[in-house]
Amino acid sequence: MNSSKSEQGIVTSKISVEVVLDSREERLISVAKSILRSLGNQQGETTHILYIGKTGIEIKSVTPHNTHKIDFSSIDRRTGGGNLSRRQQFPKAIGSLEHNVVDATAGFGADAARLALMGYRVTAIEKAPIIFAMLKDALVRTKQDPGLHEAIGGRLTFVEADAAQWLLQNKGAGVVYLDPMFPPKKKKSALPPGHIQLLQSLVDEDNDKATRSLFRAALCSATHRVVVKRPTHTPHMGDSPIAIHEGKLVRYEVYRPKDNVLGS
Question: Whose CA is closest to 50, among 98, 11, 86?
Answer without folding.
Answer: 11
